[in-house]
Amino acid sequence: MDIKLKARYEALSRVIKALSHPTRLLIVEELSRSRYCVCELTEMVGADTSTVSKHLSILKNAGLIKDHKVGASVYYELLTPCVLDFIGCIEDVIKETAEKQLEATGIVTV
Amino acid sequence: MDIKLKARYEALSRVIKALSHPTRLLIVEELSRSRYCVCELTEMVGADTSTVSKHLSILKNAGLIKDHKVGASVYYELLTPCVLDFIGCIEDVIKETAEKQLEATGIVTV
DNA sequence: TGCAATGTTGGCAATATAACCAAATACCCA
DNA sequence: TGGGTATTTGGTTATATTGCCAACATTGCA
Question: Among residues A45, A58, A64, B53, which is most buried (max CB within 10 A)?
Answer without folding.
Answer: A64
